[in-house]
Write a sequence for this structure.
């Protein structure tokens, strides 16, 4: 320990804890995470432990980052299985003309057990990657000798060197394929999650040349999808995937939109919209972390009319007749005409999740318009369960608008002899506790054959009135016992 203490006296304070841990860890495998904001000269003691390092994550200022990885070539990492490198901070500090590439011989057999690689904004020799189970590349070009621009052939060849990929995440410019060139189809039999972020043409080209398991999740963030026509080509491989025998069933559709300035057709304007399909009916906050995510697509419709075109084409491509749940609590801005188009394309829909906002008003009004006794339209959805969440403060007029829309919808359901089953309200912050709001909710009670549940408790105006009277009587007795004059309060 004397030698270790001597070393610790001559290294920056930020690293003393690290080397103290090294001295106490014995011979156990190490997982090391480093953020570099200074010259890494004091890390030689860490390199002395290279044969014990199983996982290595490095980020920080680009100048010091490249100094650090330049030293990795002089050491052996026989058990290193996971490598994550991110030199994106302070790239302005690099000298002009500096080559931001991974050392050419770092992956050349020096890391025999490497299985997980995550790289950001750096060049590397694409064909130096092999035998991986996880590959994530963000803006990483091919730095192989003689390569001026990466080719589609080279990208496919790189993926072919990793036939056991379980997770593939590519956020880079996919090289365009040569028209009518006979490219091979790359088979990835173990793939469970595919995530692509690039121009829609590049994503389409790669999807057309990958053969992946029917139960694999696909998450695509294609650029330049502004109209329904922009979706036409990419929907071909998507349709094939979600309709392949053995594919995950589709039960839940989650939609999210962000608004921008109004568009030319009078709509609110859509900055982006994400549609995610799940094989279960449990609400997912972060869809990319769920193995039940079957498909996720992001697009940027130019108008609300374009949004309807895109949604229509997607729902025609997938087996939308199986979807029973719609999570629309983040879908605020589309008008009733768009909501009506969505629900008509979901004939099995019976449950909708909303929030107390304009989206709930538009959605419920659209559901009211689809209610009919005409047998010709019996394939329309019969939504009989609504879940509405109240977040933070809501203006009284918004609450009134939502409840008025619900009252009209329930009345229409009853008139068509299709009684409503369940209205469940999540109001853990007591946003709806005002007496005026409770009176509005009470108006819904006689319209319900089913139940109104608030925070897990059945809403019963009669019971609530009895409890209120009992509480008032208890308080009256308390005042009398303690000589409190109620008129003075």
């Amino acid at each position: 320990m004397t030698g270790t203490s001597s070393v610790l006296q001559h290294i920056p304070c930020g690293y003393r804890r690290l080397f103290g841990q090294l001295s106490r860890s014995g011979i156990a495998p190490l997982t090391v995470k480093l953020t570099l904001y200074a010259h890494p000269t004091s890390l030689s003691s860490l390199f002395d432990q290279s044969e014990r390092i199983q996982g290595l994550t490095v980020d920080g200022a680009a100048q010091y980052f490249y100094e650090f990885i330049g030293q990795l070539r002089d050491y052996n990492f026989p058990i290193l299985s996971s490598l994550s490198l991110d030199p994106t901070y302070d790239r302005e500090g690099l000298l002009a003309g500096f080559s931001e590439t991974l050392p050419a011989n770092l992956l050349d057999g020096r890391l025999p057990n490497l299985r997980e690689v995550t790289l950001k904004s750096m060049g590397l020799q694409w064909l130096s990657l092999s035998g991986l189970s996880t590959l994530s590349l963000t803006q990483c070009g091919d730095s192989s000798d003689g390569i001026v621009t990466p080719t589609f052939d080279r990208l496919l060849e790189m993926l072919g060197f990793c036939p056991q990929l379980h997770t593939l995440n590519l956020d880079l410019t996919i090289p365009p394929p040569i028209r009518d060139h006979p490219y091979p189809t790359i088979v990835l039999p173990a793939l469970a999650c595919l995530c692509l972020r690039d121009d829609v043409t590049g994503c389409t080209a790669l999807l057309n040349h990958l053969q992946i398991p029917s139960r694999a999740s696909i998450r695509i963030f294609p650029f330049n999808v502004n109209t329904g026509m922009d979706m036409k080509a990419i929907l071909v491989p998507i349709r094939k995937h979600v309709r392949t025998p053995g594919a995950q069933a589709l039960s839940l559709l989650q939609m999210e939109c962000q608004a921008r300035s109004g568009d030319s057709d009078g709509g609110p304007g859509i900055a982006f919209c994400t549609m995610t399909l799940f094989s279960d009916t449990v609400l997912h906050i972060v869809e990319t972390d769920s193995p039940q995510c079957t498909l996720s697509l992001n697009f940027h419709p130019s108008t609300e009319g374009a949004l309807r075109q895109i949604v229509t084409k997607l729902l025609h491509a997938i087996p939308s007749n199986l979807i029973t749940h719609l999570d629309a609590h983040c879908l605020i801005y589309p008008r009733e005409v768009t909501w009506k188009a969505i629900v008509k394309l979901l004939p099995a829909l019976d449950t909708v999740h909303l929030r107390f906002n304009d989206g709930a008003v538009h959605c419920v009004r659209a559901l009211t318009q689809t209610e009919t006794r005409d047998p010709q339209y019996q394939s329309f959805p019969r939504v009989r369960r609504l879940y509405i969440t109240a977040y933070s403060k809501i203006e009284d007029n918004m609450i009134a608008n939502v409840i008025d829309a619900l009252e009209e919808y329930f009345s229409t359901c009853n008139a068509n002899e299709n009684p409503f089953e369940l209205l469940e309200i999540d109001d853990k912050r007591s946003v709806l506790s005002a007496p005026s709001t409770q009176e509005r909710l009470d108006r819904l009670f006689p319209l319900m054959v089913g139940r109104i549940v608030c925070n897990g408790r059945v809403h019963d105006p009669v019971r609530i009135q009895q409890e209120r009277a009992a509480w008032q009587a208890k308080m009256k007795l308390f005042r009398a016992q303690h000589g409190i004059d109620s008129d003075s309060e």
Residues 41 and 59 are 16 Å apart (CA to CA). The radius of gyration is 30 Å.
